[in-house]
Amino acid sequence: MQNLIDNFFSYTITGLTIGAVYALIALGYTLVYGVLRLINFAHSEVFMYGTFAALWVVMILGGHPGAGVGQVIFWVAMMFVAAMAMSGLIAVLLERVAYRPLRKRNAPPLIALISAIGASFVLAEIMGLRSRIVGWVGLDDTLRDYVRNSRNNAGLPTIIQPQPIFTIGGYHVTNVDIFVIVGAIVIMVILDQFVKRSRLGRGIRAVAMDPEAAALMGVNRDRVIQVTFLVGGVMAGAAAVFYMLKIGITRYDAGFILGVKAFTAAVLGGIGNLRGALLGGFVLGLAENYGSAVVGSQWKDVVAFVLLVLILLFRPTGLLGESLGKARA
Amino acid sequence: MSTTTSAPAGRKPSSRSFKERVDTMPRAVKIVLWVVFAVFLFLLPLLNIPFITTEGSDFGGVLFTVATYVLVALGLNIVVGYAGLLDLGYVGFYAVGAYTVGVLTSEHAHLSWVLVVPIAIVVAMVSGVILGAPTLRVRGDYLAIVTLGFGEIVRLTLVNSQWLGGAQGISDIPKPPGVELFKVPSLDWSAGVPVVDLSTTSTFLKFGINDFVPYYWLALGIIGLVLLFDILVKSSRVGRAWEATREDEDAAELMGVPTFRFKLLAFALGAAIGGLSGALFATKAGFISPDSFQLLLSILFLAAVVVGGAGNRWGVIVGAIVVGYFPERFRDFADFRVLVFGLALMLLAIFRPQGLLPPRRTVRAKRADDRQAVLEEGEASA
Fold it and tell me: Is the pTM of this model over 0.90?
């Protein structure tokens, strides 16, 4: 407990940065749950592919520590482009291959979950076996740096040197921390406005509210679902960039634990609710950091899961507990 | 349209004829067949049949692994198949069973194995009730995630608590007491024809460290008992209550079925069988660590049930054999087995969502649906 009081701000800022990542991934779960009433189990892999896209683009551009400001901004911008494109693509592909055929057959949700688990394995294993796959295609030499040790951690060079901007309660808040937290909130606001104001956003809300009525009103359900997966994927791509900037290490199975945490965040805030995902992400990030300060950092993941169980027991609808469809209709 | 109607009708007699043929056999023949089949299963590790026997790894050990998968699948089938509760953290109960044995026979006490296994079953059952009582009130897909979290909580607790051996786990778990009754010789196929090999034998119920065949016999015996229990429970009032709850919880509740209590019962029984399999696993391995209880295992268990056909006990046994045996047989592809497995799950979900051997009721329901669809289509076109 003393530890928590002494380092309160340190835990708070760390919690908020990781919470921002959770929140952005949680959006993917929430959006898909809103329109399909399904838990997209493979969303964690969508995020994982984003982290690799962000990493690879920096490797291609020759990113290195200690570059000028203009250069760094360019690299980070390219990371966003690459990660969002990759994650968006994977998410759309996932919908096409693992979900749409089932929807056409009116399969029960359990089967969709099995299909998603299968897709999740396939995606993670393709990444884990990428050195072998590249070997078959005969591109060993050109791609060696990208596929080396495909079962091990891959690290991003520290392209943004963390520099303390200001100090609060003895903790030096760095530029990376501020960039991640502010960046995540800005992206969430943009998404919120997109869902609220744009034509496609209206379609998403309509399908979430009542798929059949939406179809009768001329909403193309398949297209809306595809857009929903795309948007969720793009958000996961953004999360991947922030994650790489803050943590800097990824692996073929890095998505799993983050995926479960992000799902917890989505449930915590009220699944199907966009603002709930933001709130849930930050609350979860803070709670697990405070919790680990009190009971020891090795129990961090346990704290998150216990929180999930408690939330489901006492407030199954989450903190904000509104669905995508009902929210500000 | 005539072709679509004749196709299911044409298939019906052939699928029924197998069952009919078995049903119409004289009782004595049936019993003899069952006994022959049981003896075959008991002798399987010693027959050394070419092709199906695994090279490189001990076939008795592989069969034991497959048998634990079968046992786990039978337990999980009660939860997922009968009661329709999606449990992604079943490995948690498996771990509870294994660790109970580890703690009580090696780490903190030295009780007898015979005493410890029932304790392990009870502890796993209690943990099932503790997890189930609060979580079974939440909706289906939430339950999946809560149980997933439970599996991870169990594993992380094992890693972090020194009392349970921490990351090193527990070693020196004693072997169960055995009696040496008789020796069973094995077959040798190296000459092309089977020859009885009297030099390589397995002693009936001597639990050693080199010969895993007796463990397989033990597991097989337990599977037999669990199957009997499963058949009795499923055909009782409890089984019907589960089915009603699975099909329509609200309707079942209105008909006076205390659905929550039956769901909890399914959870507890499933957990008990999971704990029993974990206890067996710990006994044979002699060493357990948190690494033996990865989340992937939960997914594999669930896959065994779904691949085989949730709700049909013979189906899930087939599923467990597929999931447990093929990775061992085709070890050359060890790197790719998760990939292939994931692909198989996706293909199965898309092309055969009811599993390889679905319950008869599901088949009937699907046929009725198809007929309905054909009728509606006919009306629409007319």
Answer: no
What one-letter code names the amino acid at B204? F
Question: What is the C-alpha separation between B293 and B297, in angstroms, rounded?
Answer: 7
Domain boundaries, chain A: 2-148+170-314
- Residue B55: pLDDT band with limits 50, 70, 90: low
**pLDDT beyond 70 at A327:** no
Question: Beta partners for B288?
Answer: B170
Q: Taking the domain A2-148+170-314, which CATH number applies?
A: 1.10.3470
Model confidence band, residue A54 (pLDDT cutoffs 50, 70, 90): very high
Residues of B in Cβ contact (< 8 Å) with A107: 349, 353
pLDDT, position A282: 93
CA distance B42 to chain A (A): 34
SS3 B218: helix
In a domain, B206, yes or no: yes
Confidence of residue A145 (pLDDT cuts 50, 70, 90): confident
B341 in a structural domain: yes
A256 to A253, A261, A263: CA distances (angstroms): 6, 9, 11
Task: Name the domain count of chain B.
Answer: 1
Average pLDDT score over residue span B82-99: 89
Mutate which: A258, A305, A315, vs B, most B CBs within 10 A: A305
Strand partners, A166: A173
The number of beta carbons lying within 10 Å of the beta carbon of residue B240 is: 14
Question: A139-175: string of b/e by CB count within 10 Å (b at 16+)?
Answer: eeeeeeebbeebeeebebeebbeeeeeeeeeebebbe
Host domain of residue B98: 56-355
Minimal C-alpha gap between A140 and chain B (Å): 19
The band of A17, judged by pLDDT with boundaries at 50, 70 and 90, is very high
CB nearest to B339's CB, from A121, A263, A305: A121
Distance CA B325, CA B339 (A): 16
Residue B298 lies in a domain: yes
Region B39-57: mean pLDDT is: 72
**Higher-confidence residue: B227 or B2?**
B227
Q: Which positions in chain B have a beta carbon within 8 angstroms of at least one beta carbon in chain A?
A: 86, 134-135, 137-142, 144-146, 148-150, 152-153, 156-157, 159-160, 295, 299, 302-303, 306, 310, 335-336, 338-339, 341-350, 353
